[in-house]
Amino acid sequence: MKHAFPCCFMPGTHILMADGSLKPVQEIENLEWILSTENEKKEVGCTTEEPAEEYYILKTKEGHEIQITGEHPMMTDKGWKLVKRLEVGTKLARWNHKNVQTEFDSLEFIEIKKENSMVYNLICDDCAVVANGFICGDFHVQYQMNVLSKYLK
Q1: How far apart are CA 134 and CA 7, in angstroms?
Q2: What average pLDDT does range 44-64 have in this prediction?
Q3: CA contacts within 13 A on the Cβ side of 56
Q4: pLDDT value at 56 more than 90
Q5: What angle do CA 42, 57, 65 make, to 5 degrees?
């Protein structure tokens, strides 16, 4: 499935599955189940794979990292923000599924990589996806954020 703005995860990004295990995003198949931050099982209705020309490497002071496209929304202490609008010092939300709570890590490093790569995404039921421990939006959240971002500069 091709979209106007690829908003996806890099290969190797681990997604929290419904059974509590972690699975690389590129290995997830349609109709598998993930665990949302509401601690509910959500069915993956569809997966996407598409090319992207750049992606971001984000690292926190606490040592956590994710590689993700700039159009992807991540939860912060101030609500959803697109990756391309994050700044060093932003508090990124992380999901502790064992304690069923949100924790915040301080963004310390942002690098933009300009290279072609395949990226992957999940279309669920308008939920937050836990990717490398970070709270990120699924395709529906991303679409809403990218449409709104055109009006919220």
Answers
A1: 15
A2: 93
A3: 23
A4: yes
A5: 60
